[in-house]
Amino acid sequence: MQAIVLHGFGDVHQFHQAELPTPSFGEAELLIAIKAAAFNPIDYQMRQGRRESEHMHSPVLGRELAGIVVAAGAQTQGFAPGDEVIAAAGSKGSNGTYATHIALDYRMVAHRPPTLPFSTATAIPAAGLTAWQTFRRMQPKPEDLLFLTGAAGAVGSFLIKLLKAHGIHQLFTTAGSEQSKAALEAIGLPPAHILDYRQPGLTQRVLQASGQRYFDWAIDIAGGSISETAAEVLGLNKGYADITFLGTPRTRELLFDKGAHILNISNYAYAVAGRTAWYGENLRELTTLLNDGAIAPPAVQVVGSFSADTVKKAHTMMENNQTYGRKLVMTMD
Fold first, then answer.
1. Enoyl reductase (ER) domain location, by residue (predicted)?
2. Domains in the chain and their CATH numbers?
């Protein structure tokens, strides 16, 4: 098979295309021909050798896919060669998804929503499962007031769609560009609920926008200094969902002083615990919502076809915050 291989931690020039053996597959695994792969921030964090790189098991990065089953192990159930599927492979596959093939536990796989092309379907698993886990564990109520950081990204936009589909509309967030603001307005946020984080006095402006009400939930999808703002606008004994593990020491101090209850959102926690069925089961719930029209599919940008240059371009765009509410995708054609 062909794969884009990371030859060492560092900048994007560490990626090179190479010929590798097509992976063998076990009795409980599917061999999948990948038709499209999506990019996630954890990809470039791994490339840089940051904490996330501890979960690497292959020099081929990439964590989600849409593709076609080529072969099925004897103990697999519900899949056959020719089936079109999606999956968040995480670090559990034979390799990452910057490749033409992958072997993966069938319990992590779901059938592709039939109305979505591969290039859109591949953007569902990682962001969708993160947003779905956040929503399910928060159990927010319609009267709750929510503040999200980094909501224009794939996880944030997916989460906003889930929240709105379940009657939760008191949503406030930030944006740093007109493109991001337009993307948030397109999924239903009022302009007055979108604050420019580049302007001074962000905490005061968020509270002014909310009518001086402190928030029932803060969801941090960005990390860094803006996580401090999320903690500052949170009310006493309220909830904080941490999706990044990139909060500052001051963020943690603020949350402790407010007696916040904290949800750490980690998709790979289920893989570490050996609960591989969680991925397929929850993907099927998400695809049901998509098939029924309860939520809209994510916006995507096809960066290019399979090549090292496409991977380099996508990583550069993610690092420079140039996704503007779209999930970046690579097709294998």
1. 10-330
2. 2-124+275-331 (3.90.180.10), 127-264 (3.40.50.720)
